[in-house]
Write a structure and sequence with these properties.
By secondary structure, the chain is an alpha/beta fold. It contains 5 helices and 5 strands. The longest helix has 13 residues, at 11-23. It is globular and about 30 Å long.
């Protein structure tokens, strides 16, 4: 079973994403505080990370770049998650594997997860 970590400061969105992905058989962990991200990644060892760009107190693009610099996390696919209109360029700039625009359709979420696992 693939493990997915979702990092977003919007708790209702976290819960919805967890329900959708869990119902598809994925093992899902959610966190709303970016300060917990690196510790959770180290202990949980996700197969995929879905990461909000505009997360309170940080920037998902910076977090993604840090993940892509580390030998232990460089190969974990990261999907950026945001309502911004510049999502495609932010994805390229941060070396993420893809993006999901908010608001999203369930099908789009499941498609991008399947593509990156």
């Amino acid at each position: 079973m693939a493990k997915i970590l979702v990092i977003d400061d919007d708790k209702p969105i976290l819960e919805v994403v967890k329900i959708i992905l869990s119902n598809e058989g994925y093992d899902v962990e959610i966190i709303s505080d970016w300060l917990e991200a690196f510790g959770m990644i180290k202990s949980y060892k996700p197969d995929l990370i879905i990461l909000d760009i505009f997360i309170a107190g940080s920037d998902g693009r910076v977090i993604c770049k840090e993940l892509k610099k580390s030998k232990t996390t460089v190969n974990i696919p990261v999907i950026l998650f945001s309502a911004t209109h510049r999502l495609e360029s932010y994805t390229k700039d941060s070396n993420a594997q893809g993006y999901l625009k908010k608001p999203f359709e369930t099908k789009d979420l499941l498609d991008i997860v399947r593509e990156n696992l």
